Amino acid sequence: MNIIVLVKQVPNTTNIKLDPKTGNLIREGLESIMNPDDLHALEAGVKIKEETGGRVIAVSMGPPQAVDVLTQAMGMGADRAILLSDRAFSGADTWATSYTLSKAIEKIKDYDLILCGHQAIDGDTAQIGPQVADWLDIAQATYVREIESINQNNAENEIIVKRRLEDGFERVACKIPVLLTIISELNDPRYPHMGQLISACEQKAPIQVWNAADIGVKTIEVGLEGSNTHVIKTFTPNFKRQNELLEGSTKEVVSNLIDRLKKSDTSISHRL
Amino acid sequence: MTIWIIEDKCDGCQRCIKVCPYEGIEMKGNIASITDRCTSCGACIEACKKNHAIESDIEPRPVPDFSDRQGVWVFAEQNQEKLARVSLELLGKAQELAKALGQEVSALICGKDVSHLVETLHDHGAKNVYLIEDDALENFRTIAYANVIEDLVLTHKPNILLMGATGLGRDLAPRVSRRVGTGLTADCTQITIDPEEKLMYQTRPAFGGNVMATIACRYTRPQMATVRPGVMEAMPCKPEDTKIIRHEVSLKEQDIRTRILEKILEKKPGTDISEASVVVAGGRGVNGEKGFAMLRELSNLLGGELACTRLITEKGILPHDVQVGQTGKTIRPEIYIACGISGAVQHTAGMMGSRYIIAINNDPMAPIFKLANWSIVGDVNEIVPEFIKQLSSGGAS
Ligand SMILES: Cc1cc2nc3c(=O)[nH]c(=O)nc-3n(C[C@H](O)[C@H](O)[C@H](O)COP(=O)(O)OP(=O)(O)OC[C@H]3O[C@@H](n4cnc5c(N)ncnc54)[C@H](O)[C@@H]3O)c2cc1C
Ligand SMILES: Nc1ncnc2c1ncn2[C@@H]1O[C@H](COP(=O)(O)O)[C@@H](O)[C@H]1O
């Protein structure tokens, strides 16, 4: 199987520090990591390759330093890696990002399977996978928690996966080529292999960098200019609250609290 | 495409830094300076109108004429012919948006045999219901649904299209948005109409809820968003002259490219505190297993989930997946009730984004009170049982 895995470099938001005074995110010293779901996507790709043959290409769009996650991907067993990096790509929304990624995939050409993480921990959108699938006009399955079988020799040419649903799961047969978005339940990612890491770092291993011209996109189609959505403003959720001390007997305090909750704009206020 | 600062004109007011969504400007001495995070979005140029100290070679992108794009649409999600609650919530929001725009609310529903659900959609504010019935739509399949919605959107040209940020919605919406050539904002918690441009402002959490971003889709239509279940309110209200518009489709099985082999229902795997609208959390001030049984009773009464601090998971009283904080989960429920929790930063990092925080602690100096909307200084062993009592009896007396 020819497999492409999409990996993203993200700030480690699970380790986030907030300024205790302002509640603002402290970005300095925020460590960059491979998006956690993408580790599972890579593991799945490498495992399929080991079982069925073929190759794994890791692709990432990001600033030059995103080469780190591709080095890591090579360490985990990817055969090639491609970094899409160009100033013109910056500020992209999911429309422009998925377009850029799909143009790179079209250039790579031969693929049976595209794997990506379910969602990235910085943007939390979970939109890139389905949008890439739509640009490429191929099948998709999201929330994949198990890859059951690959039937590529018979007339079927399909892959059977289990998708997590809110109330259980479903088994779906997807025509190849297909894009899967992977959730962490699928597997336990391996640690990068030292030798592979070193060869990736020494640039013996092929990590290519492609810019806008390489994938044949115009700068007005990508990055901020090519985006359909734009950030109007960002703000820190207001942590400074109207603080009210409820006083009185236990009974009074509690009934005052329930009163406040009844009047609050929450989904439970009408149920109290 | 670049932005630059004319240093002579910069008076160091830092207005540009405040408006920059990307941290693309910083102060170098007393003068603003562009960093490599700049995406040339131009927000700073607007902010520097007074001094004209920021210039760029960006050509303003023309906003097309969208006067033929009318209507606020809600995708009505159904599963086994039952409507998802979020769809009715979205119809509530849609009524508010439609009023601000002077447009109509419509719902669209697809499935095999779903015409009996139309009435409910009318009753919750949908003036028009687009109804698409086909055997191929019995189970949700991305491409089948996307083809249908694409067809409807291109024919009827809505201004806004809302979907629930459910598993189904988050699978389908991105595919539809790409297909019809528009932007999409994921998992919004707040939606308003900007009074000047009549744009839909979509606000959503990012960075695990540590930052909120307001997003607009100025250059394409429909304006699309998925909206988190539980944050909007249904508003039953039947419009006059309701209409049902049946839409015929011809779906070919081979174009759909997926087949559902089977669906397996599972008991809910462990509770997910990040999905709960109410969370009752306990810390060391709660009296062990017995105390947590009491908190569980409270959370059940409120329809919520139970959570805790790290000290509690370390003692093995509750599992790690309900620990809140830096090394646990980051959650932002509507209501967070902190019982016997001191409010260490490692804990509060995981719950600061909650809409309302209630703190119950017997130490008036506990830092948790600094974050709370409502503070109760007292013993959890007295307050919580009284809370339970009043909730179950429906009043104080
Ligand atoms: C690297 C690191 C990561 C960490 N990650 C996390 C994390 O993810 N999540 C987390 O929660 N912690 C985390 N911690 C631990 C954190 O620093 C605090 O130690 C912990 O949150 C304190 O828990 P607590 O509030 O339950 O206990 P305490 O700080 O002991 O507070 C108990 C509170 O209960 C009150 N109390 C006592 N009896 C009663 C009563 N009868 N009625 C009412 N109030 C009463 C006391 O006044 C006190 O304020 C981390 C620490 C480190 C160093
Ligand atoms: N810039 C990017 N480069 C490569 N892959 C990406 C990029 N952005 C998102 N992805 C992939 O899409 C998945 C979902 O991301 P998101 O839609 O941003 O939540 C990620 O887990 C990655 O697999």
Per DSSP, what share of the residues of chain A sits in E-state strands of 2 or more residues? 25-35%
Give the CATH H-level superfamily of the largest domain in chain B.
HUPs
N- to C-terminal distance of chain B: 68 Å
Q: State the major sheet of chain B.
A: 7 strands, parallel
Taking the sheet with the most strands of chain A, its summary is: 9 strands, mixed
Question: Structural class of the helices, strands and pairings of chain B?
Answer: alpha/beta
CATH class of the largest domain in chain B: Alpha Beta
Number of strands of chain B: 22
Q: Quote the average pLDDT of chain A.
A: 89
Low-confidence stretches of chain B: none
User: Any guess at the CATH architecture of the largest domain in chain B?
Assistant: 3-Layer(aba) Sandwich
Taking Cα atoms only, what radius of gyration of chain A do you get, to the nearest Å? Answer: 23 Å
**Structural shape of chain B:** globular
Describe this structure in words.
In chain A, 28% of the residues lie in helices and 27% in strands. Chain A has 7 helices and 13 strands. A 9-stranded mixed β-sheet of chain A has the order 9-8-7-10-6-1-4-5-11, with helices on both faces. A two-stranded antiparallel sheet of chain A has the order 2-3. In chain A, strand 8 and strand 9 form a beta hairpin. In chain A, helix 2 packs antiparallel against helix 5. Chain A is globular. In chain B, helix 8 runs parallel beside helix 12. In chain B, a hairpin with a 6-residue loop joins strand 12 and strand 13. Chain B has 3 domains: 54 residues, 2-Layer Sandwich (Alpha-Beta Plaits); 185 residues, 3-Layer(aba) Sandwich (Rossmann fold), CATH 3.40.50.620; 121 residues, TPP-binding domain (Rossmann fold). Chain B is globular, with a radius of gyration of 25 Å. Classes of the chains: A alpha/beta (272), B alpha/beta (397). Chains A and B meet through helix 3, helix 4, strand 7, strand 8 and strand 9 of A and helix 5, helix 6, strand 11, strand 13 and strand 14 of B. The complex binds flavin-adenine dinucleotide (FAD) and adenosine monophosphate. Adenosine monophosphate binds next to helix 1, strand 4, helix 3, strand 6 and helix 4 of chain A.
